[in-house]
Amino acid sequence: MNALAVRRLCKRYGPGCDSCFTSPPVDSNRCIDCGSIVALRNVSFDLPAGELVGIMGESGSGKSTLLRCLFFDDVPDDGSAVFRDGDVTCDLFTLNRAEARKLKNRSFSIVHQNPRLGLNFRTTAGGNVAERVLTAGHRNYRGIRATATRLLRRTRVPTDRIDELPGNFSGGMQQRVQIAKALSVHPAILFLDEVTSGLDLSVQAQILDLIQELHQQLRLSILLVTHDIGVVKLLASQTMIMQHGTIVESGLTDQILEDPQHPYTQELVGAAL
Amino acid sequence: MSEAQEQHVDRPGSEAPASAKSLGAVEDNGPLPRPGSEPSQTSADPTSQRSRRRREHEFALLDPVAKREIRRASLKAVCIPGYQVPFASRELPIARGFGTGGLQLTLSLIGPTDTLKVIDQGADASVNACSLRKLVRKVCPGVKTSEITSDATLIQTRHRIPEEPLTDRQVLVFQVPYPCPLVLVESNEQRRVQMHGESDYSKIFVKLYEDLARFQEITLSHRYPTAIHRHYVIDPSPIPRFDVPKLDHARCLHLFGAGREKKIYAVPPFTDAKPLEFDDIRFRVESFDVAGQRQACQRCGSAESYLNELIRPDGSRVWVCSDTAFCQRSRT
After folding, report:
1. Which residue is closest to B198 within chain A, CA to CA?
2. Mean pLDDT by 10 residues, chain A (273 residues)
3. By Cβ atoms counted within 10 A, which residue in A185, A242, B69, B133 is the most buried?
4. CA-based diameter of chain B, in Å?
5. Cβ-based neighbour number of residue A91 at 10 Å
6. Which residues contact B290 (CB under 8 A, 6 or more apart)?
7. Residue B252, phi then psi, degrees to nearest 5
8. CB under 8 Å to A175, separation ≥6 — which residues?
9. ipTM of this complex
């Protein structure tokens, strides 16, 4: 079963014309007729439930736009994304604002590259986790406090620092608080946006271990965006390669890394080795 | 209220300044305010009928258009309990921040048969209350003022609700400095409006959580966020926590006017008004206990009212009622 089935997702920035999404892709993400930036051009893929799917690509290839669209931060121009969880089935882009907010609060979580985007630095570490739990509608102080403590312990943030501001923490700890916050509502889908960029190697390894462990224990469906080929190799069972707003290659991670077909993928794998 | 007051209202647009001569004619026009201290304006056409009939100002100062707008905003506020209705706050002879929102509500609602009470932090005799009362008396001929809560039909208040329960014949008007409870946690107004629309108040709960985690106590002593009719959360003006439960299912109409922020909102009679709280940590009001003993008012002996703590020159402490009219009544 697919947790998320994305079909023909399109997003452009600029004036736009009829042929933006239909004209054959050239060696750029600009529409040849009107010059609009085509950030996503007919992107289709499946995120199977309980799997970790990686998305790789260079800067400007549309990875972040894809996450923004799926996380309701941006509205796509066309396409559908059908979400399934238990007996819930809905197309993300036909929901009204209130329904979208409810779904986002209860079923989706995101971990950003920069902790400043995901955390409120004026509230304590515990308060940040509490915010997510409160947003999902829980109103029991001791319950929320217990959840925050449990998740911080699980993500290996010292629990005696629960009432400290995240600004006092190291970069790796801030990232772990972000992960604790994201996990606090038992999301059905977790989006990871370059979570290890900007961290030193040993901390990167700790965060990756943590993600792998949580993925195996909680059976979350995870969509992971990165441009680090090592991360994909370690974590993702399936991988998609994006370039100029299109998915140029997708399949099992091993297969793609061992036998790249598309010239861009070949270049990518070659550069990493 | 409005019927009686419209008869005093001059034709809108009759703004031609009167000459010193035509001012004399005003006296024949009935019970109209004629502040003698105001300098007479010099003007154009002394023969004009319209300028002859001109008065110094309308009944209750505001022009009819302004009153109509404020009454409409008030009606809308009553229809959508807790929703902040924007209105064009008018200039008044008092400065913004001195109760212009409350005063505009009072002036647009008051009629010659009304009895007005003005209180400031519970007291009828403090400067803000006295000045506002004097102003309303001057611009609304025929209006009676009273310090007795049960006599008043309209009560304008600054930061307290009278101790005596109000009836369905009374309207309580609040002066509000900050109408939006979300302003503490969200600086972007557009997002605040959206949060109100979706009844998304989790950020306020984060503030309450933080208080409990750090101080084991919610540190809001006044302006306690209160959910009205299970949707909108309001800032009930800086009334103490003690007064918040009085909003819930009260018999009177509560109207809130924020003049500087240009918002009007209401808690209608018999409406849910629930302070935000956690399931396991309930809202509680101030305690006046000293060593386990509920203090009583030094003057009237009441142990139920909201008390002010006074420190005497010798360092000893006494407690007196904040609501002076209630205290007076309990003593006699």
Report:
1. A98
2. 92 86 78 86 93 91 92 92 91 90 91 92 94 92 94 91 94 92 92 86 88 89 90 92 92 93 90 70
3. A242
4. 77
5. 13
6. none
7. -100, 165
8. A111, A115, A195, A199, A203, A207
9. 0.85
Neighbouring CB atoms inside 10 A of A80's CB total 15
A101, A123, A140: residue with CB nearest B206? A123
Give pLDDT, residue B36.
45
Tell me the residue ranges of DSSP E strands in B170-260.
Answer: 171-175, 226-228, 232-234, 253-258
Neighbours of B84 (CB within 10 A): 26
Q: What is the pTM of this model?
A: 0.83
Residue type, B308: N
Q: What share of chain B is helix, strand, coil (3-state, %, to 5)?
A: 30, 20, 50
CB pair distance less than 8 Å for A145 and B213: yes
Residues of chain B with pLDDT under 70: 1-55
Res B55: pLDDT: 59
Sort strands B154-158 and B115-120 into parallel, antiparallel or unpaired.
Answer: parallel
Distance set, CA A191 to CA A182, A188, A243 (Å): 9, 10, 20
Say which residues have a Cβ less than 8 Å from residue A2's Cβ, sequence separation at least 6: A46, A47, A48, A49, A82, A84
**Tokens 């439960």 — which residue?**
B245
> Known catalytic residues of B?
82, 297, 300, 321, 327
The DSSP-derived string for B18-76 is PPHHHHHHHGGGSS----TTSPPPP-S-TT-HHHHT--SSBTTBS-HHHHHHHHHHHHH
Residue from B207, B209, B282 to probe the interface with A (highest A Cβ count within 10 Å): B209
Residues of A in contact with B279 (CB under 8 A): 139-141
pLDDT at position B64, please?
94
Among B198, B214, B281, select the one facing A163 at the smallest CB separation. B214
Report the DSSP beta bridge partners of residue A48: A2
Rounded Cα gap, residues B172 and B189, in angstroms: 28
Any residues with CB less than 8 A from the CB of B301 and at least 6 apart, and which? B330
Nearest-angstrom CA–CA distance, A39 and A74: 12
CA distance A46 to B74: 53
- Taking the C-alpha atoms of residue A15 and residue B125, their distance in angstroms, rounded to an integer, is 65
